[in-house]
Amino acid sequence: MVTKIIEQPVTIWMANDIPARMVYAGHRWRVTDTPTRLRESIWSAVTDEHHRGLYGWRFQGTNEAGESMVFDVYRGEDGWHVHRAYD
User: Fold this and answer.
1) Bridge partners of 74?
2) CA 42/CA 54 separation, integer angstroms
3) Is the pTM for the entire model greater than 0.90?
4) How far is Cα 85 from Cα 69, in angstroms, rounded to an integer?
5) Looking at the record's lineage, which domain of life comes first (predicted)?
C-alpha cells in the first residue's frame, strides 16, 4: 500500500453530514464504503499548529475508471483538504 501525503484542496458533497462524493485531482469520486470520522487524535502525529483541532473523515472513493483509493480528508478554515491518499 502506498501512502501519499498530499495536503490538496478538494470539493466534497455530503449526504446527511457524511461524505458521499468528491472531486479530487481532476476526477469525480464516489464514496464506496462507510466513512469513518477522524478526530483530532489522527492529526496528533502532525506537529504544526495548522492541524490542531481538526476533524475529518477516512473513506474509500472510486472514480469513473473503477480505480479505488482510501482518503483521509479534513476540514480546515478554507474548506476540505486531502491529507493522505492510500492506493
Assistant:
1) 56, 81
2) 9
3) no
4) 7
5) Bacteria
Per-residue confidence (pLDDT) for residue 84, from 0 to 100: 87
Rounded Cα distance between 18 and 34, Å, is 9
Domain hosting 81: range is: 3-86
Place of cell 469513473: 64
- Burial profile 45-72: b = 16 or more Cβ within 10 angstroms, e = fewer: eeeeeebeebebbbbbbebeeeeebbbb
Number of domains in the chain: 1
Given a cut of 90, whether residue 34 has pLDDT beyond it is yes
Q: Is 17 helix (H, G, I), strand (E, B) or coil?
A: coil
Angle at 81 between CA 74 and CA 25, to 5 degrees: 140
Sign of CA dihedral 27, 63, 85, 78: positive
